[in-house]
Amino acid sequence: MQARRRRFAERRKAAGFTQESLAEVVGVDRSTVVRWERGATDPQPWHRPRLAAALALSVDGLAELLGCAQEPEVRPGDGVVEVIGRFRRMDREFGGARLHDAVTTYLQQTVAPRVFGTHRDQEASPTFAAAATLVEMAGWMTHDLGQDAQARRHFQMACGLAGAAGDRELVAHVLGSLGYLAVRNGEPKRAVLHAERGQESLPEPERAAAVSARLYAVRARAFAQAGDAERCLAMIRAAEKVLARKIGPPISPWTNDFDEASLAVDAARRLCRLGRAGAARSWAERVLALRAPQRVRSRAYALAMRSSALLEEGREPEARQARDELVETTRTLGSAPILAEIRALERRFARRR
């Protein structure tokens, strides 16, 4: 047994549970708890809150005990930009559900006092921008937990903070996040409005190419959801052109980069939705070629789309291979949307059977 899994078993005993009684509390079979303690499998994200509560742990504390994602180390004197970068790297590898508590704690304990304690104008803009970035990040992590209403509130707050910072590129970026969430919740018209507002906010579209391309991708999602294939494909082409003309780094140091692989993820998902399996598979394979193994979430979406497209093309053995790689890849990923992709894929395989 792994050392940390031994600690997990010891924690269970210290909390007064047998394997059977813990299984009953969490809602699983005893054999599942046995596999957790052997290190053969990890508790699924929907089991973790109840399991953590039973063992008197936070969700992140449970992840550390299991040997999964750990909180990024935040040392005294670390710059906010450095800490945000660390959070982003771990989010891409492990999913926001694992990092939500760490981000909100840092926001409350380190950034919020600066926001409310800022008096000099020259300090206010970067402080508000940092707060906006962290609140938006917390919104995506809340989305990873499956709490979209709370995620929307986070994004709306982040938009206001970015406006207070005077960072128009960051405002546009957050409006893109609101657009993505609107599509997720079946509101394509609202998504298009958010994206158009974001495009209007951009001060220099050529220098802000990454944000501009992301906003086109939001509209591509919205048009695909509305069944408008022509406009969806037009938005994908527009995003490609913008990225091809990208000049230098973003104006704002706070926005997340949107690159060719990011666009490929979006294109694969939209084309899959529109029933264009061959094109969707091609875009998904581009993601897998571009994204390093540490970019687990991007690769997970690509594997899901590739498996789905192969299934539609009648190439079931290859589709199953991609599905199995997806499941293995996401064993340590905490993300409700990815789990939804896996379940939807399993339903498609079941219909084939």
Describe this protein with a few key phrases:
single chain, 353 residues, mainly alpha, 434 Repressor (Amino-terminal Domain), 73% helix, 0% strand, globular
Structural summary, described in words:
This protein has 353 residues and is mainly alpha-helical. Among the domains are: 3-66, Orthogonal Bundle (434 Repressor (Amino-terminal Domain)), CATH 1.10.260.40; 77-166, no CATH class; 280-353. The protein is built from 18 helices and no strands. It has helices at residues 3-14, 19-26, 30-38, 48-54, 59-66, 80-94, 100-117, 121-144, 148-165, 168-184, 188-201, 209-225, 229-244, 260-273, 277-290, 296-312, 316-329, 336-352. Helix 6 runs parallel beside helix 8 (121-144), helix 14 runs parallel beside helix 16 and helix 16 packs antiparallel against helix 17. The longest helix is centred in the middle third of the chain and has 24 residues, at 121-144. The protein is globular and about 60 Å long. The two termini are 37 Å apart.
Short account of what is shown:
The chain is mainly alpha-helical and 353 residues long. It is 73% helix and 0% strand.
